[in-house]
Design brief:
28% helix, 21% strand, alpha+beta, 9-stranded antiparallel sheet, 7 helices, Catalase HpII,  Chain A, domain 1
Length: 323
């Protein structure tokens, strides 16, 4: 009889390091072929950098009061707003929100990386490799999707489920603040596993016009901060049943309710797309493994992200011209 998985239990196969090494090789090849190796391999276009403060509440249940959230407090933050792939804001795309929490003990930092969809679109490292290989050999979006779908000439082995997940990702936005952002993958909260969500609340409503279609998101974000403050809430979704809410497959939605633990305040008057902010956004290196021990990432996708991100940062730095 197979034992039921425990809360936040990870299952790490013996061949995982070899699989991750292959993923690094494929990611580096794709980045080099992009023609812009000095740019980020993922989320290369940013719309601006928001400076603000995270306020940890005391008005939530004690089971979530762990690590950074154990006590009420205030912490300076910066948030990078970006597109996943597109440099044209009118195109359908995944959008990213990367937040760095500063002011922790011993100079530590905590990065929170989120995208504008609630579940991830890759369920394991084998599927991840198949997608990268399809991108390298596909020849455009249609060719990539075709190679990804057809794992072999046998239709019984075709990746209908995985291809359907890929087709669902991305949306067009009229304001970067007009959607919620999710971790998609789970993280430790001490003895628990949680996912997180960031929901914007903008007093006075969203600015949905202004700027060219290509660069509208950064222009409207800056206009929003000139008109008034921007507020967001940080909430956790706790894993209740590890069988129906797995740690290792981030494509499976969790059903437990969201519980708010902190407020993010981005103050009026700042200019997120000012030259100095855009330069800082370009230089910042976000990684979910920039974290406190109590908030370590969980699952195969997260375990792969640490060495992949580090390798891509190294590749980008090595390709930049020396002064």
């Amino acid at each position: 009889m197979t034992a039921s998985p425990a809360l936040f239990q990870e299952s790490i196969p013996a061949d995982e390091p070899a699989k991750i090494a292959k993923l690094i090789e494929l990611q580096q090849a794709l980045h080099q072929r992009s023609g812009a190796p000095t740019k980020r391999a993922q989320h290369p276009k940013h719309h601006g950098l928001l400076h603000g403060e995270m306020i940890v509440s005391d008005a939530f249940d004690s089971d979530l009061k762990v690590g950074l959230f154990a006590l009420p407090g205030r912490y300076p933050i910066v948030a990078r707003c970006s597109n996943g792939l597109a440099f044209d804001d009118s195109q359908k795309d995944v959008h990213g929100l990367a937040i760095r929490i500063r002011g922790l003990e011993n100079g530590q930092i905590q990065d929170l990386l989120a995208i504008d969809q609630s579940e991830f679109f890759i369920r394991n490292l084998d599927v991840y490799q198949a997608l990268l290989e399809a991108k390298l050999n596909g020849g455009g979006r249609a060719g990539t999707l075709g190679r990804y779908l057809m794992a072999s000439w046998n239709p019984l082995q075709w990746r209908f489920h995985d291809a359907s997940l890929l087709l669902k990702i991305g949306q067009t936005l009229e304001s970067f603040l007009a959607t919620d952002y999710f971790s998609t993958t789970p993280y430790r909260l001490g003895p628990l596993a949680v996912k997180f969500r960031i929901k914007f609340v903008v007093p006075g409503g969203l600015i949905m016009q202004g700027g060219s279609q290509e660069d509208k998101l950064g222009v409207r974000l800056a206009a929003q901060l000139q008109r008034g403050p921007v507020v967001a809430t940080l909430s956790f979704q706790k894993q209740q049943d590890p069988k129906t809410e797995p740690t290792e497959d981030p494509t499976v939605p969790w059903k437990t309710p969201w519980r708010e633990v902190a407020t993010l305040n981005f103050h009026q008057g700042q200019v997120p797309n000012a030259v100095e902010n855009m330069q800082e956004a370009e230089e910042l290196e976000f990684n979910p493994w920039h974290c406190l021990d109590e908030h370590q990432p969980l699952g195969a996708i997260n375990r792969a992200r640490k060495p992949i991100y580090e390798a891509l940062v190294k590749q980008r730095k090595s390709s930049q011209p020396t002064s």
